[in-house]
Design goal:
With about 675 residues, this protein is of the alpha/beta class. About 45% of the residues lie in helices and about 20% in strands. It comes from Prevotella multiformis DSM 16608.
């Protein structure tokens, strides 16, 4: 569908990438990956024609349409949500208008026998057939399905777009692009402003409806679920892996190991050649050989090793005071925002009758659609806004809070390094450069002043600053929006090792997986508690009914335990209990399946460990048998034979175990 050949982009002395060639085929789901600054967003702009390359060609057939969603765009504010989305069908609506005019003309004219009337009828028939082929009668329903899938309610359809935040308006632009059904979709961080349910809807849309997709995303679960091919921009060129992201990581590690071996061999060859030249440079009898070696040296093409930082960056929170047993207790909590139209109106209830207790050491997630009250609850905890009911903050609680506006509170006159140097203590003072590198502030970037940083860079800097402060209650509101995957891993490991309590507002499933032990779901003016991790919650979400539209509906209740649902706060503050056989059955089956998978994974890992041990011993025996005096040592020869047999048997066993594991996963 799109052919890229010999692509070169130069911004300075060193090209961003050079002589890049690949083809985007129909049904390709491509993840475009690479470290920050490698040129991912630039590549998308070139593919959609917004930017010209320094050299090379991008061939797009005339009948191929391309849709592009950038990270940042100018948004219009002069229409309603539905009117703005309807612009995706501009051609269809113009055709509809022409058909309506022709219908009116046919109704008004009476010269039925004339050639002009016959020509009008023929034009009307042709245009109407074309209109029906384009799905003209269904586009309104398609608009509603898409907007609903992206999180809008029917009440939102007629609201002016200016009433929505930038994230919601980005959803409108995404809806318009999806509704045009382009042949190639180019998406730059499409999940940044989506909640979990909208992300899952988008995954299904891209898998079922899109023809070809190229996307840049730091949401690992999203790219794993959507893509079937990975293009990595590295060392100024593109490596094409025809597998999804997780498999790409394995292949990439193997490839880099091969590169390192080849690089080391080449460096040894270069060193040997240089040594020969230096040794015999001034001997006339060796002049010919020396000249040959010099020519060989000149012909050597240096092997480049992918720029990957394999150093494990471990971040540990500084020691802090022990908090009370219950850092946060909410009783009958309610938040109502005043009416925008009438000062004495009833106002908008964000949530009410919220009763929850967070214990010391718990890591909990706040999830739900945007606008359902997650950040509002956090602001209540922080004491930033008034509320009704009771909210108790425990004894000795020291809160560390990260929100997007935290980035605006940084001292703009300090450099990045100075900012972190002022808060780092103990052994972290020796690791400041490593820490800055892990959050994409390596090299010269660490000497930039805060005032010249972008919004995303400031957010990352505020995150590092928070991680170095002694707190025992950590509240993170969308902490991963501006982090790449390695940075997320550093942050995740730090929170897992954190002795205190953590409240995490996030839509990133991979980040929350294995990190939280409880999920609080915000929606319909209520807050529900779900025990277990994020995927346990999502599993139940697929078998339980959604929140009732009316107050007092049972909605999604707490997780099923031993055939009964756990206690849950009703809108009236009372405790409800009920049976949930369907949920219990699905949950039990899910748990049993996960147990089988873990057992199979352990068996594969044990087999791999045994193979590694046998291969290590085989290598040592190889070295021993290479020594002439050991060549006839029958004890060594026998052990070598036995090791080889065991290795063959274990490799066969590993193959069977791996196939069993794949079967269980699928």
């Amino acid at each position: 569908m799109i052919a890229i050949e010999g692509l070169t982009v130069e911004f300075g002395v060193k090209p961003l990438f050079k002589d890049v060639s690949f083809v985007i085929n129909e049904r390709d789901r491509i993840a475009l990956v690479g470290k920050n600054g490698a040129g991912k967003s630039t590549m998308l702009k070139i593919l959609c024609g917004l930017q010209k390359p320094t050299g090379g060609t991008v061939s797009v057939p005339n009948d191929t349409t391309v849709g592009y969603l950038p990270q940042v765009m100018k948004l219009s504010d002069d229409t309603t949500v539905k009117e703005e989305t309807r612009k995706a069908f501009a051609d269809t609506t113009k055709m509809e208008e022409r058909i309506r005019k022709m219908e009116q003309e046919m109704a008004e004219r009476t010269d039925y026998e004339s050639d002009g009337y016959a020509a009008l009828v023929e034009r009307f028939t042709t245009e109407h057939e074309r209109y029906m082929m384009m799905g003209g009668e269904n586009y309104e329903a398609e608009i509603e399905r898409t907007l609903t899938g992206l999180g809008f309610t029917r009440e939102d359809f007629e609201r002016p777009t200016r009433e929505f935040s930038g994230g919601w308006r980005m959803r409108i632009e995404l809806a318009k692009i999806l509704l045009r059904h382009p042949d190639v979709l180019l998406l730059d961080e499409p999940t940044n402003h989506l909640d979990i349910e909208s992300i899952q809807w988008l995954e299904q849309f891209l898998l079922q409806s899109a023809k070809a997709v190229v996307l840049v995303s730091h949401d690992r679960a999203f790219i794993n679920n959507v893509t079937n091919r990975t293009l990595e921009i590295t060392c100024g060129h593109v490596e094409d892996y025809r597998v999804k992201y997780d498999e790409y990581l394995v292949l990439r590690r193997e490839r880099r190991e091969q590169q390192l071996r080849a690089y080391e061999n080449q460096q040894k060859e270069i060193a040997d050649t240089k040594a020969f030249i230096e040794r015999f440079r001034y001997q006339a009898t060796k002049a010919v050989q020396v000249q040959q070696r010099i020519r060989q040296l000149e012909k050597i093409v240096p092997i480049e090793v992918d720029e990957v930082d394999n150093a494990a960056m471990h971040l540990k929170f500084p020691p802090c005071l022990r908090s009370g047993d219950y850092p946060v207790i909410a009783e009958d909590l309610k938040k109502v925002y005043p009416s925008r139209l009438h000062s004495d109106g009833p106002g908008q209830t964000v949530f009410e009758d919220v009763n929850l207790t967070i214990r010391r050491g718990e890591k909990v997630a706040f999830v739900g659609k945007n606008g359902e009250g997650k950040s509002t609850f956090v602001k209540c905890v922080m004491g930033e806004i008034p509320f009704e009911g009771t909210l108790k903050i425990g004894h000795n609680v020291q809160i560390g809070y990260f929100a997007q506006n935290q980035a605006q509170l940084l001292d703009e006159n300090l450099t990045v390094h100075e900012m972190i140097d002022r808060v780092a203590t103990g052994e972290m003072r020796l690791k400041i450069n490593d820490l800055l590198g892990a959050f994409m502030f390596g090299g010269e970037t660490s000497e930039k002043r805060v005032k010249v940083l972008s919004g995303g860079e400031r957010s990352r800097l505020a995150m590092i600053k928070l991680l170095l402060e002694p707190v025992n209650l950590l509240i993170l509101d969308e902490p991963t929006n501006h982090l790449d995957i390695p940075s997320k891993e550093v942050l995740k490991e730090a929170i897992k090792a954190f002795d205190g309590t953590a409240i995490i507002v996030s839509h990133d499933r991979e980040f929350l997986d294995g990190l939280v032990s409880k999920v609080y779901e915000f929606g319909g003016g209520r807050v529900r508690e779900h025990l277990g991790g994020i995927y346990d919650y999502l599993e139940r979400l697929s078998v339980l009914p959604p929140f009732s539209a009316e107050k007092g509906g049972t909605g999604r209740d707490l997780p099923v335990r031993n055939g009964r649902q756990s206690a849950v706060s009703s809108p009236k503050g009372k405790v409800e209990e009920g049976t949930g056989n369907a949920g219990a059955s699905a949950y039990a089956e899910h748990k049993a399946q996960q147990k089988k998978i873990r057992k199979a994974q352990r068996a594969v890992e044990d087999s791999e460990a045994k193979i590694a041990k046998l291969e290590d011993r085989k290598r040592k025996l190889d070295e021993l048998l290479m020594v002439p005096e050991n060549a006839s040592d029958m004890e060594l020869v026998t052990e070598y034979t036995n090791i080889q047999r065991e290795l063959d048997e274990e490799n066969d066993r590993w193959m069977v175990l791996s196939e069993e594991l794949e079967t269980l996963k699928n």
